[in-house]
Amino acid sequence: MRYILIYLFLLNIFIAHDNGQLLRIETILDLSAPGGVDNECTIMIISGRATDDGRPILWKNRDVTEPDQRYLYIEPMDYHGQSTYGFTGNFYTSDSTRCFMGVNETGFAIINANCYNLPDSRIDGIDDGDLMTLALKWCSAIEDWEHILETSGIYGRRDCWLFGVIDSSGAARLYECGNTSYTVYDANNFIHAPDGYLLRSVFALSGSEPSRGVPRYERAKHLLEYYTENNYLNVKYILQKLARDFSLGSDNEYSHNDPYPLPYYGHQDTLPAGCVITEETINRYKTRSCSVIRGVLQDENPRLATMYAILGQPVLSMAVPLWVGSEYVPFCLRGNEQAPWYSLISQRMNDIYPFDSDNGDVIMNSHYLLDSLGQGVYSWSLELEEWGLSEAETKLNAWRESEFSALDIRQGEIEIVNELWNGFVAQGDILFSGLDDNNELPELIEANNYPNPFNLKTVISFTLAGNSDVNLEVYDILGRKVRDLINTRLESGSHKVIWDGMNEKGEVVSTGVYFYRLTYGDKQEIKPMTLLK
Question: Residue 86 gets which letter from DSSP?
């Protein structure tokens, strides 16, 4: 009970007693916080018996109205002599106090989705983001989480939710939660989960007839049943096939026009060839982020639990490996006022959803992903993401076999994330479309800058194959020129140019992501660099 009281105090819950009898409970909530009844996430809990390496997995596609999100690492804190756990999770940019999917240093991880077919009789009570933040700070085992559910049920939860939880013992469970009660399903139980996994999409199997989320659920169920006939589940399949799927499924009026395999030349309704209605698909018009959290085996260090984080719509973005053991989230995924990764994604969303007509926001142009010439986002993003998954596995195997520090994990994390980020930006011809008259991707030459991120100055190094006229410019994230660094003829060989973080007027620019464009002859390279203060 001591820990439960700590949980309640952390939630700003005040309990008054009169002769040992509970009189009242008040929860301080921000009812205007991002969210609402239009949030329709898809989640899955996978036990180790269904995965290719025996480690449990959580998956969540986060479908919400507010797109501006980021990932953060929350440090441990002391509370009445007890230390909370550090954790990595997904947050709204406007609110770093409420987490909506995450994993902590003990290997405990949690995800959730709204639930719309359980009786909901409250307009106040404990919020889901608060509950999950609380769990990540204090829980090391599923039993701890169940204590929170039991206690919060006494006072009442604000809405109805579905929660997926795993811990370092290999436990993997799903909770269908009403305002005061819950039903639990165990992914390790052959009766609850014959195939070792539990799938949900905004409705509870213990509730009334579902009215929302059924097409996504049925499509995901179909994909899983087909794949697991001959395969165990793994992170790559979930990320590249399941989370990104935008078929309408077999029971939809457009099922005869399945967009796969890409490129898609069919028509849905009266739309142009290649356009897809994403109102009820797994990757849908309001999928704003995605996480696949892989747990650990019982004899492994729980700090190696891995969150493969996608910021932005999965089809447009890439999964980035984050380790809670690094005690860090790279700047491109967290930013200060806004995560740079989200900034780029928000621009590209206008190109993949190009229609302004009624319901235009749900119509996706699949040719933006892959067209008849083999060009598009998928021509580079899936391969680059697969490289990141492979590199993450290589580093994990090394850490499992030796002693490591938080700095070791952080360095490995940064190495992978920097490569993914650089590739993500280098392919961003959209961002720089206002700088050139053509839409062709620039041919790359050898160039790098160090340090990156930097504080006072960074050195841009490059090599020329021959004598050439060279132009080196700095742009901000909106494509506006900040400064010309050089514009002259240089001889072949290696060169270094310093940027001191100032613009053409000699003013120090603000913290953020900038890009340098190096041009010589008909060749050029564009790369990001991050200024921190």
Answer: P
104 token code pair: 């902590």
Which pLDDT does position 197 carry in this prediction?
A: 98
Tell me the per-residue pLDDT of 209-246, one tens digit each, with 9 for 90 and over: 998 999 999 999 999 999 999 999 999 999 999 999 99
Angstrom distance (rounded) from CA 355 to CA 270: 13
User: Is the CA virtual torsion 340, 113, 355, 316 positive or negative?
Assistant: positive
Q: Which long-range contacts (CB under 8 A, 24 or more apart) does 179-182 make?
A: 179/119, 179/120, 179/121, 179/122, 179/125, 179/153, 180/153, 180/154, 180/156, 181/153, 182/149, 182/153
| Residue 294 vs residues 145, 264, 308, 324: alpha-carbon distances, Å | 18, 33, 8, 12
Identity of the residue numbered 277? I
- Closest residue by Cα to residue 59 from 172, 192, 142: 172
Task: Please state, rounded to an integer, the average pLDDT across all residues of the chain.
Answer: 86
| Cα distance between residue 46 and residue 303, in whole Å | 20
Distance in angstroms (rounded) separating the CA atoms of residues 239 and 296: 19
Neighbours of 205 (CB within 10 A): 13
Cβ atoms of 210 and 203 closer than 8 Å: yes
For the range 464-469, what are the long-range contacts, defined as Cβ-Cβ under 8 Å and sequence gap of 24 or more? 464/490, 464/491, 464/492, 464/493, 464/495, 464/520, 465/492, 466/492, 467/491, 467/492, 468/492, 468/520, 468/521, 469/520, 469/521
